[in-house]
Amino acid sequence: MESPERITLAGRLRNNFLTGLIICAPLAITIWLTFAFIDWADSWVTPYIPQRYNPQYYFDITIPGLGLLIAMILITVIGFLVKNLIGRSIVNFGESILNRTPLVRTLYKSLKQIFETVLKDQSTSFKKVGLVEFPSPGTWALVFIATEAQGELAHRFNEMGQEMIAVFLPPTPVPTAGFLMFVPKEKLIILDMSPEDAAKLLISGGLIAPEWTPRPVVN
């Protein structure tokens, strides 16, 4: 049987290890993902850089992030050019070709609409978090609030006398896929937490709950 001193020492070592793991694991994973993304970007962009413009050709060394940097500069330049009349005309011409191409036009329009919705400054999509009863009454699920029902969906719901909200229900612990659901507005509980805090709560499986201060009651 181990003595109390040995048990205490083992407990301290275990606690120290867990503390170090909590500090090192997120840092190591973040660094690994960052360099993996840089390597992925370099593998796509660097092969298309002419040798005379590639510093690696002259210095015979690998420069991490060169491809990513060039891609960011190129995207920024394209965004600048598109704002003028000539650039806009070129983009419209390219889009007209894509819009005449079967299959490709559907994919392009869908992706463009998604990026415009997500990146638009005035967009309110996924800026709020809520709770809905799912999958059964009395059981609540965390959802990201997208927008109010629009178009034909809004018309159909109005015929039923209901005001519906589109929400995204992600799974745990990897919220990269999920369910798009339309729920009655009165059955949606809107939370104060930010989407970032909600993502942390989902990824941690409910272990990392955001801090919350109750709003003062106004009499």
UniProtKB/TrEMBL annotation:
Pfam families: DUF502 (PF04367)
Record key words, sorted: Membrane, Transmembrane, Transmembrane helix
Ranges annotated as spanning the membrane: 21-41, 61-82
UniProt entry tagged with the keyword Repeat: no
Top-rank taxon, per record: Bacteria
PANTHER family xref list: COV-LIKE PROTEIN 1 (PTHR31876), PROTEIN LIKE COV 2 (PTHR31876:SF26)
Protein name, as recorded: Putative membrane protein
Protein's organism: Rhizobium rhizoryzae
